[in-house]
Amino acid sequence: MTPDSIDRPAIDAVLTQDLLTRIRGRAAGYDEANAFCHEDLADLVDAGYLRAHVPEERGGLGWNLPTLSAAQRLLAAYAPATALAVNMHQVWVAAAGQMVARGHHEFDQVLDETAVGEIFAFGISEPGNDAVLFDSTTEARADGDGAVRFTGTKVFTTLTPVWTRLGIFGKDVAGGDAPLIFGFLPRDAGGWSTLGDWDVLGMRATHSYATRLDDARIPAGRIVRRLPTGPNPDPLVFSIFSAFLSLIASVYTGLGDRALQLGAEEAARRAALTTGETFDRDPDVRYRLAEAKMDQLSLDSQLRGLVAEIESGADHGPEWFPRLVTLRTQATRTARRVLEAALHVAGAAGYGRGSELSRLHRDALAGLHHPSKDESAHRTVADALLGRLT
Known about the structure:
Blueprint: H1 8-14, H2 17-33, H3 38-46, H4 65-78, H5 80-101, H6 108-115, E1 120-123, E2 139-142, E3 148-157, E4 165-172, E5 180-186, E6 192-194, E7 209-218, E8 223-227, H7 235-269, H8 283-312, H9 320-346, H10 356-365, H11 374-386
Parallel strand pairs: 1-4, 2-4
Antiparallel strand pairs: 2-3, 3-7, 4-5, 5-8, 6-7
Helix pairs in contact: 2-3, 4-5, 4-7, 4-8, 5-6, 5-7, 7-8, 7-9, 8-9, 9-10, 9-11
């Protein structure tokens, strides 16, 4: 990773300290009210953040993936749920950027429309679908004019109140060699509804409602890919997985950054009655927080290294997917471990409902549910190491 691969002045110019302070100040209120982060999103749109990864010649800020990853990590340290909400838009922009760079210009629409203010959401996950991108329970029916109608249920549709383009896929009922159809549904197209079911433990401000598709029609010009079922080397698979898993990891790394900071502050603030010394002098506390810092430093190197390799086009061949699922798994695990250490140091006050550490811990638990889940990640790594089970 080259020293200038992350443009930190560019990040600071967009995610200013004043903006980040306002965003952190609203986070607890969104969580308590189970409210969507409308004000945060408006501030980020005004700052140009949603078009940060769009090339400058297309009207964006021209950030590379390492810069975007570092920015998402920083934003998550101030408001994890807001960062996760914005993340799903950024995933589509990053994936589209990779596809366009490879000559697949049907994805130009994502970059060009992002530049003029459209917001993309991720409508991929389905209840009970552990195949993720490799199969779908959503029915797709092609019209004679090339348009496709989708019927099914998508879960964890982050940005539900505000998206203007929903990236979805489904399985052609007519079958064929490439039955999985991907496209972008305009919000005003109709044929969709939200199930209004987002009242969850953490990451509440994302409003990741389930979405029901009922003959939702995507015009031919917005159908961008057809793929076979099962694992395959199509560049869209890599583009989505690499963008999604690296940016998800960025959010949870930022969450861990904040947890470690709060743990150190609590250790310096609290004093033991028996010794009169603050807990940052206690050997056991020092060991516990040092262990958490070691975990965070290992993750830092893993995240920055892998994102730099995605950006540079490194060729890991079939090893890419084990590396990517390991990054996501380690990021979400590390966030939980660091928070447990910080909560231990904070004492009973950290367990209170109004504690930031308590809220962050609930947010971190959402990491259990992002693809690739723990079992799927281990299958991917085992298959790479031992061969696929037949």
